[in-house]
Design a protein that fits this description.
Blueprint lengths: L19 E7 L5 E7 L4 H12 L7 E7 L4 E5 L5 H6 L8 E6 L5 H4 L1 H4 L5 E2 L10 H9 L6 E9 L7 E9 L2 E5 L10 E5 L4 E6 L2 H4 L7 E6 L9 E4 L3 H16 L1 H8 L19 H5 L3 E2 L6 E2 L3 H26 L4 H4 L37 E2 L4 H10 L6 E6 L7 E7 L2 E12 L2 E5 L10 H10 L10 E2 L6
Parallel strand pairs: 1-5, 16-17, 17-21
Antiparallel strand pairs: 1-2, 3-4, 3-5, 4-11, 6-7, 7-8, 7-13, 8-9, 9-10, 11-12, 12-13, 14-15, 17-18, 18-19, 19-20
Length: 477
């Protein structure tokens, strides 16, 4: 009996290496940047990478968007989603894009949930009684057993009909989205299933009236994860922005649950001793930067006493005025007409007639047209374009921009968000004793330039519905 030995060569065990992919990300001004990323990169990872490469300030509002121009849709890519997986659902011939910009409303409902869920649209469980507080309503939405029911009327597009919409009573429950076949009846025999969310994504409609003939400008829809066109969409339309925001926010919470809350909390991890539901929202960068400083000693210090700050401001203002006058006398004093366009602007001390308002003084000599260098100023954009920019960056109270007025070339317009609505306020120029001022309240409070005006209303509500908080800017990559 003979035995034959045979050598067997086993394949070498190689470590798993994640495949690198190249993605292209666009900004609001349509500039783009190509990034080489691993196949498991998340939307948050891409945002962090772009923040570092472009030296931006991370205020936790930077967001990655999926933009589908062919069917006029856009959605927020959640921070935990895999970007390569999102792109894998795109068709070969589609011209879809990834956009990188700020979205202040992404997690705003965690900070102010009562503002996002109006009482007439939310039915709580029978176990709940009394007044619902901030923490309790969050826990109910994140709970697996006590999810509130969202209900109300929506316009639904009928399948197979180009511009046929029907107004139906909808209900959002943990098992999915339903509509009633008999008025506002909630009886099980009258409810018909409309959509579930595990295999589809929710998008906001950007041009609903043009493309789908929506009854209003508050459309949203559900699109299957696989590549598909307009025929695969399940389209809905609300009657107002508050209703659309409520539905879309509730569906996000229903689909992602605690994962969404973990995304919101991730930037705050490491803050010791902070309760998860009682973290105060971050102040905006503009608010944090507006402080009075004293540099006269060996070390700089923050002036916390308002009276001292005002006294120092007056003294500094007079010193700058003397320097400005000396400079003008040396180089020739401009005429009134010249000073309105290109000359050096004189600094003025502006008093507010309201006793509870903080008087803000800008202590430097500037050119009146220097506002064009500010990120919040948008030169020659229309009212519709201003509304689109604010909507893109989130309908949070205090989101704003300043633009040229189209109806009156000599004036400006402050466009801002408040109460899930976009409002416009005209900034009127006034000439008094040969000097040019700007005002929002018929001259009661005057400012020598738009920068001073914006900084004042960042600190004071004044005649506005709220303080200016976040500015809209078109960033470049």
């Amino acid at each position: 009996m003979s035995l034959y030995a045979r050598r067997v060569t086993l394949p070498a065990i190689t470590p798993i290496i994640l495949q690198k992919r190249v993605i292209k990300v666009y900004s609001e001004d349509d500039t783009s940047r190509a990034l080489e990323v691993p196949s498991d990169v998340t939307a948050r990872d891409v945002c962090q990478l772009l923040i570092l490469k472009n030296h931006y300030i991370d205020d936790h509002s930077w967001t990655l968007f999926e933009h589908l121009p062919r069917i006029g849709l856009e959605r927020v890519i959640e921070d935990h989603e895999l970007v390569i997986e999102v792109q894998s659902n795109w068709g070969i011939e589609e011209e879809n894009r990834l956009y990188f910009r700020k979205n202040y409303a992404k997690y705003e409902f965690f900070k102010h949930p009562l503002n996002y869920f109006p009482e007439h649209m939310v039915s709580l469980s029978s176990e709940t009684s009394g007044v619902i507080g901030h923490t309790q309503i969050l826990q109910m939405f994140l709970s697996s057993s006590t999810y509130p029911e969202i209900h109300g009327y929506l316009h639904a597009k009928e399948q197979g009909k180009k511009s046929s919409w029907k107004k139906l009573y909808f209900l959002l429950r943990r098992s999915g989205l339903y509509f009633s076949t008999k008025g506002a009846s909630k009886e099980p025999r009258h409810l018909q299933f409309f959509c579930e969310f595990s295999s589809s994504d929710m998008y906001m409609s950007l041009a609903g009236k043009k493309m789908s003939g929506t009854p209003a400008n508050y459309g949203f829809c559900f699109k299957p994860n696989k590549a598909g066109g307009a025929k695969d969409l399940k389209q809905l339309c609300a009657d107002d922005e508050q209703s659309r925001t409520c539905w879309m926010t509730a569906i996000r919470l229903l689909k992602y649950g605690m994962q969404l809350y973990q995304n919101y909390m991730q930037p705050y991890q490491g803050r010791g001793g902070c309760s998860s539901l009682t973290i105060s929202p971050m102040r905006s960068i503009s608010e944090n930067s507006l402080v009075a400083m004293d540099f006269s000693g060996h070390r700089s210090r923050v002036i916390e006493n308002p009276t001292e700050a005002l006294t120092v401001a007056v003294e500094e203002g007079l010193a700058w005025r003397r320097k400005g006058c000396l400079r003008l006398n040396t180089h020739g004093s401009p005429t009134t007409s010249q000073s309105a366009t290109s000359s050096v602007g004189m600094c003025e001390l502006i008093y507010s007639p309201r006793r509870d308002a903080i008087t803000f003084i800008t202590i430097f000599i500037i050119f009146p047209a220097i506002h064009r260098t500010q990120l919040w100023f948008h030169h020659k954009i229309s009212r519709d374009e201003a509304q689109r920019l604010i909507l893109q960056q989130g309908l949070v109270d205090g989101v704003f921009l300043v633009r040229d007025s189209q109806s009156n070339p000599k004036t400006f317009v402050l466009s801002m968000s408040h109460g899930l609505k976009i409002k416009h306020f005209q900034i009127v120029p006034l000439e008094d004793d040969g000097k040019l001022f700007y005002t929002l309240d018929d001259g009661h409070t005057r400012f020598t330039d738009l920068i001073q005006l914006v900084e004042f209303y960042q600190l004071n509500k004044g005649v506005l519905p709220c303080k200016l908080k976040h500015y809209c800017a078109r960033i470049a990559l």
